[in-house]
Specification:
This protein is of the alpha+beta class. Helix content is about 30%, strand content about 30%. It is built from 9 helices and 13 strands. Strand 1 and strand 2 form a beta hairpin. Helix 1 runs parallel beside helix 2 and helix 6 packs antiparallel against helix 7. The radius of gyration is 19 Å and the shape is globular.
Length: about 300
């Protein structure tokens, strides 16, 4: 691996849930799920720089309300690798992935910190140990170590990576409001029965030549209990243009799959009044680092 001797720059992808089925609830209160995770080319950027060995860790972020202390998953990743009082690195996080969107931005940043610190400092931490640490930090974190497409089970920590699938175009939109995941689960618990599953249908259509066959199969159990005004507006716009709207994670981002770039650009233009609108593509990778002018897998 080549990189600057004292710095590594990483890009951390977002994800969408092509499906999200709730399969049960454990004795400890956590819900089990089955979901198809898909990485997309919407990125945060994490820069890690070596400092003096006895200089305490510093973390800064371009988004004002993102905590830059031990509450941040990036900071927690450093603690796991370097101890309770981490020293020797400075980290700068530039966020493009919206918060409380169900797109995994915090988990992806965390995975980047684990991979980047290990690489920059040459730590003797095996892939297996890094995966164990990732799972201890959050159920979605292990996915971003590899990215691409994967089936997630358990509470999201049991991953089955899938081979590369055809690139798909989608539009992702989000309003100002975020969604509370615990509240979403509480609402699901009040339903007389769980929404029907979508994962098997998604897996059956992952490699269809027509993208709409896949996107029509997509679905999310949280769609039945998440009904913010801005989400309703996004759903209405997408549905009125023949696009099936689907929440990612517990929300509040909604994505709609498109057959062509032209269709995606038209949909994005109509949704342009929303605070966050992006045309994205599915990608076959997770966290990457900058090598010269080229992004490469870690």
């Amino acid at each position: 691996m080549q990189m600057q001797e004292n710095q590594i720059i990483l890009r951390t992808p977002a994800k969408v849930n092509l499906s999200l089925d709730i399969t049960g609830r454990r004795a400890d209160g956590y819900h089990t799920l089955r979901s198809v995770f898909q990485a997309i080319n919407c990125y945060d950027t994490l820069t890690i720089t070596k400092t003096d060995a006895d200089t305490p860790l510093s973390l800064k972020c371009n988004v004002e309300d993102v905590p830059c202390d031990a509450r941040n998953l990036v900071y927690k990743a450093a603690v796991k690798l370097l101890g309770e009082n981490p020293c020797g690195i400075a980290m700068s996080l530039e966020k493009e992935i919206p918060s409380q969107a169900g797109m995994g931005g915090g988990s992806s940043d965390c995975a980047a910190a684990l991979l980047g610190i290990r690489a920059l400092l040459g730590l003797d931490v095996s892939d297996e140990k890094l995966l164990e640490i990732a799972a201890s930090l959050g159920a979605d974190v292990p996915f971003f170590l590899c990215g691409g497409t994967a089936v997630a089970e358990g509470i999201g920590e049991i991953l089955t990576p899938l081979s590369d699938v055809p690139a798909r175009i989608l539009v992702v939109a989000k309003g100002e409001q975020g969604v509370s995941t615990p509240e979403g689960y509480r609402k699901l618990d009040t339903l007389p029965e769980l929404p029907p599953p979508d994962t098997d249908n998604v897996l059956a259509h992952l490699r269809d030549t027509q993208a709409q066959r896949l996107f029509t199969a997509c679905g999310n159990a949280f769609d039945t209990v998440t009904n913010l005004k801005e989400i309703r507006k996004i759903r209405l716009v997408m549905s009125s243009h023949g696009i099936k709207p689907v929440l990612s994670g517990s929300g509040a981002a909604v994505f709609g799959g498109c057959e062509t770039q032209t269709q995606a650009e038209h949909l994005a233009k109509i949704l342009s009044g929303m605070p966050y609108v992006r045309i994205c593509e599915t990608i076959p990778h997770g966290v990457q680092y900058l090598n010269g002018d080229t992004w490469m897998d870690l």
